User: What shape does this take?
Amino acid sequence: MDSNQRKQHPKTAFQAGYEDGSPLYIARARMVDGINTPGKCGPHLKGAYIPYGGKEVIIEHHYEVFVLNPSHKQEYEFQLNFKDGAVPPNAVNTDDGIYVGRFAKEEGLIPGKIAPLHKSGYVGYDGKEFIKKAYEVLVRKELF
Assistant: This one.
């Protein structure tokens, strides 16, 4: 794919943040360790950008985008003020022990991963993976 081309995302993609004025969605990709790891994607990016191994790894093909199913009786939201790997019981995971987080950055809110085993969250930007101790957690909230 030409580096000037950008990806189209489903209309039902869950907007999880923004950077530089552009919307960001939750992406996940199976990394070399076999774990489905969350990161970001958006119309201004050329694929999924996954925080992994100290870098922001770009996956141009073979990634998934988190979408909302209008017929589902669930809604999703980010809950604030978590730290040190903590996640609530209704946190959304992308693989065993890996959860979806969101991290504040001066230009926006960026989706990334939370690894309770490491007591940290991870976010990718500017080609690097950054460790964050404080973050928001994506949760599934049941509607009654």
Observations:
- The radius of gyration is 14 Å.
- The longest strand covers residues 74-83.
- The CA atoms of residues 77 and 139 lie 6 Å apart.
